[in-house]
Design a protein that fits this description.
Length: 89
């Protein structure tokens, strides 16, 4: 999945047909705070490498067993823009 955000607001996202989740945690309403992109906008944290995240951080989950499913996020950051690439192992 890829997610583009501008000024902490999700502008668009896309996932392939075989990606296990189709819906973001808050839809396009807001960027989740516990993601790499969310920490960049909300806390001013910058990561230069790929970070481990969990399904519950990014996605609308339907079963408790999905919550801690591991994913990876690599986020490109530039001023008011972020572009996150999210994948599973």
């Amino acid at each position: 999945m890829v997610v583009y955000a501008y000024e902490n607001n999700i502008k668009w996202y896309w996932s392939s047909n075989d990606f296990p989740f189709k819906f973001l945690k808050f839809g396009k309403d807001r960027l989740p705070e516990d993601t790499v992109a969310g920490e960049y906008f909300n806390l001013g944290r910058k990561f230069n490498n790929t970070q481990k995240v969990f399904a519950m951080d990014w996605f609308n989950i339907w079963k408790d067993s999905q919550a801690e499913k591991p994913f990876y996020e690599h986020c490109l950051m530039n001023n008011k823009h972020t572009f996150s690439i999210i994948w599973e192992d």
